[in-house]
Amino acid sequence: MSEFFGSVWWLLVTLGLLVTFHEFGHFIVARLCGVKVLRFSVGFGKPLWMRRDRHGTEFAVAAIPLGGYVKMLDEREGEVATEDLDQAHNRKPVGQRMAIAAAGPAFNIIFTLFAFWLMFVVGKPDFLPVVDAPGGVAAEAGIEAGDRITAINGSAIDSWSKAIQKLGENAVGRYDATVEVRTAAGAEATRVLAFSKLPEQVPEAELFDRIGLRLQPPKLDPVIGSVSEGMPAAAAGLKVGDRILRINGHDVSSFADIESMVPEQAARDPQLDLVVKRADEQLDIRLKANEIRAKDGSTRFVIGVGSTDRHNATLKYGLLDAVPQAFAETWDTTKSSLGIMKMLIVGRASLDNLSGPITIARFANGSAQLGLAWFLGFLALISLSLAIINLLPIPILDGGHLLYYLIELIKGSPVSERSQIAGQYVGLMMLVALMGLAFYNDILRLIH
After folding, report:
1. Which of 52, 80, 294, 345 has CA atoms 20 to 30 A from the CA of 194?
2. Model-level pTM?
3. Which of 431, 437, 429 is nearest to 352 (CA)?
């Protein structure tokens, strides 16, 4: 249940931040253009909270947190007093109306840049893209254990998450990927992962297994980084910073040895004898390992200790150096997002890739658990996605309004009200269909 409530909470935080920022863009540009704003609402439906400012604008937080809106004074939506006609949205020049429509997506892009900048300033912990015992397509391409991925399709790769993202995009579209690696011996080599040979019927969930890449765990000293309360290690007096030298007489050289020796030795006898170095003192500690059962029914023995930070590729820059990095990351993410959208449209990628609020909530919770930098990266990605989606030329979205205004500029008069209403219905049906498919995919992911 903690995962459920965590997902709900971080979804609300995500939508609250991004919707507020998006609608603030419309709001502030409307104000600058002299348009009277009647309501600024975060969420739809019945307001849970509301206040009115000196300009007569109602600020509200509504019950359904799946969006928001800015309602402006407009003769097409109701009678406008004569003295307020100069503040009506429909009376403003088409250029100003275009600026108001574009402001929401523009503010989402600004938020994306800021979130990526702050992510790099805080420092995003990650892993070096070093491969461990590959299989599948990667093994067929000649990639070997210890290879360090340096570039994919000409783009430099500095982290494991970036490598997996780039390869995943190619695998989804069945595009071959050219991967440059530095071998364990220090030689440079180029490998081609033939994703074009993958069968079309392979489910998206199985693609990463077919890619066959696994991260080589960084070698860590056998130093305790965390001790779980109520577990054998805590009861025996083990502390953070202790170095485990031996378990049942067997020498320990890395934390991986602890992870393998504890269940192996405890399976014979749960009573374990540890030799621990604490500062300049060497201690003999005896404890009894706990047997725990996993969801799949298997059991294993644990003592309740964790390693020091495993990450070995923290992406961190100074205040100024982070600025070009934020722009580069935004551009790279934009290209990736547009590429996936193109693959969905032309049928190279399955519509199973569409995600709704449930999946977003789970990713929001997962990224928040990884730390501030990862959550900022997640916010940046969702914010940029909102900007791109809202700029699509679909009636009811900002891109649809911009399309109408562009037609008005070309023909010299507004699109007829009848055409606009018809477009609104078409756009609404398209959005409902997409949201329905996204919810359906979410539910399938939960079931499986």
Report:
1. 345
2. 0.82
3. 437
Report the distance separating Cα 247 and Cα 78, nearest Å.
Answer: 79
pLDDT for 446: 66
What pLDDT is attached to residue 1? 45
Say how far apart CA 301 and CA 258 lie, in whole Å. Answer: 12
Q: Is 56 left (phi over 0), alpha (psi -120 to 50) or beta?
A: left
Rg over alpha carbons for the chain, rounded to the nearest Å, is: 28
Range of the domain at 299: 224-307
246 and 278 part of one domain: yes
Active site residue 188: no
Structural tokens at position 240 = 């953070």
Q: What amino acid is encoded at 25 in this protein? A: G
Beta strands 188-193 and 177-182: pairing type?
antiparallel
Instruction: Give 10-residue mean pLDDT values along the chain (448 residues).
Output: 75 89 94 93 89 91 86 87 88 93 96 96 91 89 92 91 90 90 91 88 76 85 91 93 94 91 92 93 93 78 86 87 95 90 77 74 85 93 92 89 90 83 83 78 68
Residue found under tokens 């991260």: 215
Answer yes or no: do 413 and 400 share one domain.
Answer: yes
Report d(CA 63, CA 65) in Å as an integer: 6
CA 322 to chain CA mean position, Å: 19
Tell whether 240 is covered by a domain: yes
Cα(211)–Cα(385) distance, integer angstroms:
26
Dihedral (CA of 446, 442, 378, 315) sign: positive
Residue 153 located in a structural domain: yes
Catalytic-role residue among 3, 23, 180, 281: 23
Contact yes or no for 48/64 (Cβ under 8 A) = no
Host H or E run for residue 38? strand 37-52
- pLDDT at position 2, please? 66
442 CB-side CA count, 13 A: 15
367 inside domain: yes
68 lies in some domain: no
Helix (H) or strand (E) segment spanning residue 408: helix 398-411
In DSSP notation, 367-395 reads HHHH-HHHHHHHHHHHHHHHHHHHTSS-T
Find, among 356, 417, 423, 432, the residue nearest to 396 by Cα. 423
Pairwise CA distance, residues 348 & 336, whole Å: 14
- Give the end-to-end CA distance of the chain in Å, rounded to a whole number: 18
Tokens representing 137 are 């397509």
Kindly state whether residues 256 and 277 are assigned to the same domain: yes
The domain that holds 237 is classified in CATH as 2.30.42.10
